[in-house]
Specification:
Elements: E1 16-21, E2 27-29, E3 33-42, E4 48-55, H1 62-76, E5 82-86, H2 92-100, E6 104-108, H3 114-134
Parallel strand pairs: 1-5, 5-6
Antiparallel strand pairs: 1-3, 2-3, 3-4
């Protein structure tokens, strides 16, 4: 294991959150186009604190990110001191909102967050697959 790979046991609850896309590929709708599902997760518990569906082709809006952080804070009870973001995923408005709230932001390789994100992303893939089979 590389020293930069993070694990849940390195954190206390509400110490750090992780923001990442739950979906591998854009979520396509006939009526509204393509979306990504952005997720905020507590690093220690791997509990998903909030999600937001945002347009695929653009950065999430400031309002969308404020709502996401507000929703997450309501479940987490307090804001974390740190936020981890995978390199290459939408970051501008996520970073701006985190900093506005006094949260330090660290970008890391996507693979370094796998211990946190793998199960959630797999569950989301399964959910989308099952939805498609029910239609």
């Amino acid at each position: 294991m590389e020293p930069s790979v993070l694990r849940p046991n390195q954190f206390n609850v509400d110490e750090a959150w992780i923001a990442f896309k739950l979906n591998d590929a854009p979520i396509c709708t006939e009526r509204y186009g393509e979306f990504n599902c952005i997720c905020l997760m507590d690093a220690a518990s791997c509990f998903i604190l909030g999600t937001a569906l945002v347009a695929h082709a653009v950065e999430p809006s400031e309002l969308e990110m404020r709502r996401l952080f507000k929703s997450a804070q309501a479940k987490g009870k307090k804001l974390p001191t740190s936020l981890y973001l995978p390199i290459g995923e939408p970051q501008t408005t996520l970073t701006a909102e985190a900093k506005r709230l006094g949260i330090s932001v660290t970008t890391v390789r996507k693979g370094d967050l796998r211990a946190f994100t793998h199960e959630a992303r797999q569950g989301f893939r399964d959910y989308l697959f099952n939805m498609g089979n029910e239609a």
